[in-house]
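Encode chain A's predicted structure.
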Amino acid sequence: MTVEYYVLIAILLFIIYFAWKCIYFVGEFEAIVVERLGQYKATFERGIYVTMPFIDRPRKFKDIALDVVEGKKIYSKKEEEKIGLSPRFLKFDTKKVYTNDSILLDVDILLSFKIVDPRKAVYFAQNVTHTIEAVTETNLKLAIGEMKLEELIKSRTEVKNKIMGRLRQLGSGWGIEVTFFEIDNIIPPEKVRATMEEQMKLERQKRSDFFEAESTKKTEILRAEGYKASIVQRAEGDRHAEILRASGVAEARQRIAEAEAEAIKKIAEALSTSKIEPTQYLIATRYIEAMQKLMSADDKKVIYMPYEVSNIISSIGGIMDLFSKMSSAQAGNTQSPKDDASSDVNTTPNH
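Encoded structure for chain A:
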């Protein structure tokens, strides 16, 4: 081998090294912060980039790596040129937090974040995961420390939103966006837990009694309203029935009166040629009908009549003659039933 051969190999290796240091391939959800002579130059995201060798160099991103070995969490520092932009999920260890009424709680929290500004994440936040964990724990203690245990249980969502808002405000200055935060579990001491369970039982019994009483009240109200409505409907029906009954009676009386008026008119026309008054005729016919009913009774042997009736009976003969003439004109020599009835009447005036 000649010297020229070694020189050619050296030049080829230099070109490969130059290309390795100057050309960067950035993948999806990755970024590289590039500095020129120690100052920020640009941020490379998804693509192929060429830099100047020995002048441009990537700024390494420092963070903490979490590994689980035999059920134990092991944190280790790492430095990378490429910054991951995909969301990161963190489940912290159980935190010990005191409430405003001095009750020590075990709180489990879940958090997810992602880097949205690689430049801020590199220059303003060292060890992003550790920073997020420390800030989250601090804000958790501040938020829970302002509330009593009962208020905390009732306002769990309010506490979560408050802490998440604070984390987003701080993270925006570090190029970090908190996408999810949740208080997974709140565990009070055993004695406090037993007291709370007993109180919850009493509260549930109280609500059950209240709902039962409310249901009974509504049932009684509905029953009373139904009874009231039935009485009103019954009274309304009775009223309509009475109205209809009275209307029927009035109409019947009106028709009877109209029939009697028509009969009187016809009787008056028939008696217009005689000297008998229509009024005396009608009274006499009513007496005859009444006498027929009295005589048809089985338990009556003697009939007593007032003295004044003799004046009316005296005109019966003339009426019978009138009936005879009318009947003769219509049916020949048929005997008038009025004569038979008058022949059977046995009057005994009562002085």
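The beta strands are 23-36, 39-50, 56-58, 61-69, 72-80, 82-84, 88-91, 95-98, 104-115, 176-187.
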